């Protein structure tokens, strides 16, 4: 799973016993050489699906990590790209990894996605592989924050993969990982929130609509279909169509 340039077992253990923020600070220098980084195939597929929905002026990579999503945005946005993350270590890697080359301006902001230190200045917000760090009860607040930084008509887009079926090895691997994390968090502080099976598409779509989004699903054809004909991967595209619930001034 991890190559010789990736983190050692000891390094992973230290990360797992840290807070989420501290853990990613420690992992940042080797993060791109782990399976936790979003694969290029997913990034390229999302970029291809979003291109016809543009043009976009300003984009935000939410929970940007080492900047893979921000790199995608540099090919979709004409004016500016911003990456936001709460890990200083991940942002430091991103600054060196994503360098402007005559395209949009690129900026990096340290901040919590649940309380974004940004204004409504974006036409497109993307996020890759970060939602396992949010508990289900945090989704309403998270989506309200995203809504608040989008201009009217702006879009929030992220890929979702179809969950493996119980007959597949992947199902039991994810179940085992989540179980280990729950035991770890019951016995150790600070908690490390990372649950692969807590982000359920039906709940997510409902919460996006409550936050003031109109939601669409787009199949990502590069990943094919399951035996029942459903897509293996989809792109959720949520468009800001109305003020957030309870806020008539948004």
Automatic annotation (TrEMBL):
Transmembrane segments: none
Pfam families registered for this protein in UniProt: Methyltransf_25
Any GO BP annotation: methylation
GO MF, any single term: methyltransferase activity
Domain of life, source organism: Bacteria
Annotated InterPro entries: Methyltransf_25 (IPR041698), Methyltransf_Superfamily (IPR050508), SAM-dependent_MTases_sf (IPR029063)
Methyltransferase domain boundaries: 60-154
Keywords from the UniProt entry: Methyltransferase, Transferase
PANTHER family named among the record's database cross-references: METHYLTRANSFERASE (PTHR42912)
Protein name from the UniProt record: SAM-dependent methyltransferase
Organism this protein belongs to: Streptomyces yokosukanensis
């Amino acid at each position: 799973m991890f190559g010789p340039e990736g983190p050692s077992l000891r390094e992973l253990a230290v990360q797992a016993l840290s807070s989420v923020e501290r853990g990613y600070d420690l992992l940042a220098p080797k993060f791109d050489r782990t399976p936790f980084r979003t694969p290029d195939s997913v990034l390229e597929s999302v970029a291809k699906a979003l291109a016809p929905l543009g043009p976009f002026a300003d984009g935000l990579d939410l929970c940007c990590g080492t900047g893979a999503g921000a790199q995608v945005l540099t090919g979709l946005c004409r004016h500016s790209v911003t990456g936001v993350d709460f890990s200083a270590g991940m942002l430091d890697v991103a600054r060196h990894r994503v360098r402007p080359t005559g395209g949009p301006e690129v900026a990096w902001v340290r901040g919590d996605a649940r309380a974004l230190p940004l204004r409504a200045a974006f036409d497109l917000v993307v996020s890759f592989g970060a939602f396992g760090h949010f508990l289900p009860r945090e989704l309403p607040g998270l989506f309200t924050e995203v809504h608040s930084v989008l201009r009217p008509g702006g879009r929030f887009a992220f890929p979702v993969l179809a969950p493996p079926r119980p007959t597949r090895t992947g199902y039991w691997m994810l179940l085992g990982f989540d179980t280990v994390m729950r035991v770890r968090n019951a016995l150790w502080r600070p908690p490390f929130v990372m649950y692969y099976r807590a982000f359920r598409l039906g709940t997510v779509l409902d919460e996006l609509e409550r936050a003031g989004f109109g939601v669409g699903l787009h199949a990502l054809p590069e990943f094919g279909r399951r035996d029942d004909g459903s897509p293996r991967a989809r792109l959720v595209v949520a468009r800001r169509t109305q003020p957030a619930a309870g806020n008539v001034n948004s």
